[in-house]
Amino acid sequence: MTKVAVLIFCAWALMPTANAGTESGKTHLITLKAAKLDSGQLAYQMVSHKIRDASGKLEDITNRYSTEPTIPGPAIVMTEGDQAEVTLEQGIKDSNEPVSIHVHGVHYKIDSDGTMKVFNHLADQAALPGKPYTYKWTAAPGTAGTWPYHDHAFGNPMLGAEDKGLYGTLIVNPKGGKIMAMVDGQMKGVDIKDIKREFVLWMHETTFWGTEINHLANRQVPLWTNPTLGAREGELVRFHVIGIGTAFHTFHLHGHRWLQPGTTHLVDTVNIGPITRESFVIKAGEGVGPGPWHYHCHVLQHMQSGMMGGFRVIE
Ligand SMILES: [Cu+2]
């Protein structure tokens, strides 16, 4: 190799490499606020969500979210290859304490860890009143899945206040646009765009906290505690079940069964521990028809404490 060729080669080798797959991805410009509910619990609220495509065009999708703070917090949906800039505002009444967002699953640099200096030994990565903090996430290829995000600072600079309601869901859809599911008695790839509703259920101690992402109305609907879910028979429905807190649960859905992700196992009950999750697609009422079906935790003590809700499938 000539000297010039070596120099060109070295310059090429040292160029910052774009994350494969991100060139065509979108950038999510998100502002979230941490707030206090009348109940005294804490919650995240979507303030603004705009999506910038590769040509620079902005789409504002803020109106798809509740205008109030909710538990769980807003479900943020990205696709592998997308990036997000998430700015958090501290809007907690009567408090000057830092609050943060720590996300799981996706890629981020150490300054987007959402932790405090006492924990990360570098810097406080939290919002204060009048002083927002911005986190950068990359939904890199291979990070498709359902992930939690939660506070890691408020009230306790090591651990934060996730147990007071500061948690939400990040859904990274696979770039290929398909999810394996057992539908019509066959294991097959289901088109994500054919899913009509997604139910996000967080299992916290002896209570379910839910949100519906309704793709028919293009809206997220807060469902609050132990909700009754609803679907039409034959609709493709996706569940995201996530644990938080200290208890271990077994999530069970009556009359339905699903393919465990990455396996050929068909199940109707799964273990859910703190910050572990299960995400799956079913066809509502498949083989069993409409009815007032139920879901519940199958830990007897939790069932006895009322940890259950309905899954009404109508014709
Ligand atoms: Cu349980």
Number of domains: 2
Using the CA coordinates, give the radius of gyration. Answer: 21 Å
Helix content: under 10%
Bound molecules: copper (II) ion
How much strand content do the residues show? 35-45%
Strand arrangement, largest sheet?
Answer: 3-2-1-5-7
Helix tally equals: 3
Query: What does the average pLDDT come to?
Result: 94
Number of DSSP E strands: 23
Query: What's the architecture of the largest domain, going by CATH?
Result: Sandwich
Protein name: Putative multicopper oxidase
Keywords: Copper, Metal-binding, Oxidoreductase, Signal
Pfam families: Cu-oxidase_2, Cu-oxidase_3
GO molecular function: copper ion binding; oxidoreductase activity
Task: Give a structural overview.
The structure is a single chain. With 315 residues, the chain is mostly beta strands. It has two domains: 27-173, Sandwich (Immunoglobulin-like), CATH 2.60.40; 178-314, Immunoglobulin-like, CATH 2.60.40.420. Helices cover 7% and strands 45% of the residues. The protein has three helices and 23 strands. It has helices at residues 3-14, 117-120, 300-304, and strands at 27-36, 42-52, 58-60, 75-79, 83-91, 102-103, 133-138, 145-150, 167-173, 178-183, 186-191, 197-204, 207-214, 219-225, 229-232, 236-244, 249-253, 258-259, 266-267, 269-272, 277-283, 291-297, 308-314. The strands form six sheets. It has a five-stranded mixed β-sheet, with no helix packed on it. A five-stranded mixed β-sheet has the order 14-13-12-16-21, with no helix packed on it. Strands 15-23-22-17-20 form a five-stranded mixed β-sheet. A hairpin with a 5-residue loop joins strand 2 and strand 3. The protein is globular. The termini are far apart. The relative contact order is 0.13. Mean pLDDT is 94; it is low at 1-22. Copper (II) ion is lined by residues 203, 247, 249, 297, 299, 302, 307. InterPro entries: Cu-oxidase-like_N, Cu-oxidase_C, Cu-oxidase_fam, Cu_oxidase_CS, Cu_oxidase_Cu_BS, Cupredoxin. This is Putative multicopper oxidase. Residues 1-20 form the signal peptide.
